[in-house]
């Protein structure tokens, strides 16, 4: 495994599961139990607080043992219930929507906090029990027992909210909205903000492919450390060409990137370049914009399948895809050439782009959604919104071509009124694309043929 990213990745995976955050809550409650009982024994012996606390909770060790034991036993029972609910939810989400949406449920903070509170209360009661004694001097940590009773009541509230939260979050609209919000966040990170002139990005300079550096493990490219690649290129005075996309599968022994001049590809250069790639068994949304789009596409395809036949969910997915694509259409393409501190081109990257995102979002839905006229009509409406939003000629061309492919795919099998409405929406797309071309021609003074 990649040594440079291994500790960071382990920390991220732990923070996104049922380990780190529930563990922090449990350790905090454990520390509270140990400190509180010891401090209470010393303080109440020197002050009159003990008499006040005795009125709130009787200083009877047997009663304290019963209360703490009952709370601890009930907490561990409820933990099994919480886990059972989570397993049912994960199974339902995987079968009904897509296995790739399970990550969102595992990373859900409400589920993690609920689990941590119940386990923490269980540990709190277990660690408080030894401080309750009958001999030689009877002692009951009244404050600790009262807090345990308060935690039990709080756990009941957490359980009720957890059930409500799961009932809401399992709905298709909430799942798709959550994926869309996460994807928009990645779009903002990956695609640069639009400048006034909306440049189309620096064209890739003719850096040759060079000698290949082979991958030493198989998996999907999750992240690429661009700063690490630039540093490696500068340190060894080479140029790098990455012909792999984020999210692409790489087999062990196949080329990962190329190095020029070729005679420097072996040795420390290869090791430094491999350390910039994080490869894992599954795709993640750390830098992979297309993965978020694919999750929504998977839900839409399952919704329009004959086995499910849920066109409303498919239309919701199309609307959310339009939301993501509008966000991308308003941003500039990422730079294909990464330069070093001396200004020289050091790394050429293959980047995701708006046309590629548009194809990933619409190609499969266009193919499988033709059976229901509502799906192509909604796709065409989203294309019209994209055409009105963009100010880039390449983006407008991609939108117009996608609209024409959609209209051609739906040319047969529809009633005349449906075909007429689809063509009317296609005209809106083409007219909006022409307006982008006209505006660009007026600014540049050159004729642009669309």
Give an overview in words.
63% of the residues lie in helices and 7% in strands. By secondary structure, the chain is an alpha+beta fold. Among the domains are: 165 residues, no CATH class; 135 residues. Strands 1-5-3-8-7 form a 5-stranded mixed beta sheet, covered by helices on one side. Strand 7 and strand 8 form a beta hairpin. The two termini are 48 Å apart.
Quickly list its features.
450 residues, alpha+beta, 5-stranded mixed sheet, 3-stranded antiparallel sheet, 8 strands, 63% helix, flat
Widest beta sheet: strand line-up: 1-5-3-8-7
Cα end-to-end separation: 48 Å
List the total number of helices.
16
Q: What's the helix-strand series? A: HHHHHHHHEEHEEEHEHHEEHHHH
**What ranges have pLDDT less than 50 throughout 5 or more consecutive residues?**
1-6, 196-204
Précis, in short:
The chain is an alpha+beta fold. 63% of the residues lie in helices and 7% in strands.
Write the layout of secondary structure elements.
Layout: H1 6-15, H2 20-46, H3 49-56, H4 61-96, H5 102-106, H6 109-128, H7 142-169, H8 172-190, E1 211-214, E2 219-224, H9 226-236, E3 239-241, E4 249-250, E5 255-260, H10 268-274, E6 277-280, H11 289-303, H12 311-329, E7 337-339, E8 345-348, H13 354-368, H14 374-389, H15 393-409, H16 416-444
Parallel strand pairs: 3-8
Antiparallel strand pairs: 1-5, 2-4, 2-6, 3-5, 7-8
């Amino acid at each position: 495994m990649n040594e440079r990213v291994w500790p960071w990745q382990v920390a991220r995976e732990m923070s996104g599961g049922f380990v780190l955050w529930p563990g922090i809550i449990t350790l905090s409650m454990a520390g509270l139990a140990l400190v509180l009982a010891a401090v209470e024994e010393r303080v109440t012996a020197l002050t009159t607080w003990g008499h006040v606390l005795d009125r709130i909770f009787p200083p009877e060790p047997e009663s304290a043992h019963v209360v703490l034991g009952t709370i601890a036993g009930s907490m561990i029972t409820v933990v099994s219930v919480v886990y059972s609910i989570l397993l049912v939810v994960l199974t339902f989400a995987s079968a009904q929507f897509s296995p790739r949406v399970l990550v969102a449920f595992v990373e859900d903070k409400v589920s993690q906090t609920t689990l941590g509170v119940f386990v923490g209360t269980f540990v709190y009661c277990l660690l408080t029990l030894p401080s309750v004694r009958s001999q030689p001097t009877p002692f009951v940590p009244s404050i600790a027992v009262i807090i345990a009773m308060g935690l039990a009541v709080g756990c009941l509230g957490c359980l009720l909210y957890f059930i409500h939260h799961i009932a809401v979050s399992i709905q298709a609209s909430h799942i798709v909205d959550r994926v869309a919000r996460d994807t928009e966040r990645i779009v903002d990170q990956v695609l640069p903000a639009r400048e006034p002139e909306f440049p189309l990005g620096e064209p890739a300079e003719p850096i040759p492919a060079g000698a290949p550096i082979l991958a030493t493990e198989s998996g999907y490219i999750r992240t690429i450390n661009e700063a690490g690649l630039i540093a490696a290129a500068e340190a060894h005075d080479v140029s790098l060409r990455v012909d792999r996309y984020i999210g692409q599968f790489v087999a062990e022994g196949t080329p990962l990137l190329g190095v020029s001049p070729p005679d420097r590809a072996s040795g420390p250069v290869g090791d430094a370049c491999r350390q910039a790639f994080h490869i894992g068994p599954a795709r993640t949304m750390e830098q992979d914009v297309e993965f978020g789009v694919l999750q929504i596409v998977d839900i839409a395809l399952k919704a329009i399948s004959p086995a499910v036949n849920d066109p409303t969910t498919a239309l919701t997915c199309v609307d959310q895809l339009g939301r993501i694509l509008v966000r991308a259409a308003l941003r500039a393409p990422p730079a294909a050439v990464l330069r070093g501190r001396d200004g020289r081109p050091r790394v050429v990257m293959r980047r995701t782009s708006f046309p590629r995102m548009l194809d990933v979002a619409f190609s499969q839905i266009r193919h499988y959604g033709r059976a229901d006229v509502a799906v192509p009509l909604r796709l065409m409406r989203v294309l019209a919104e994209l055409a009105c939003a963009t100010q880039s000629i390449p983006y407008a061309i991609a939108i117009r071509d996608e609209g024409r492919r959609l209209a051609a795919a739906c040319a047969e099998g529809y009633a005349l009124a449906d075909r007429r409405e689809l063509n009317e929406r296609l005209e809106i797309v083409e007219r909006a694309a022409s307006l982008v071309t006209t505006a660009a021609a007026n600014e540049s003074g050159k004729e642009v043929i669309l």
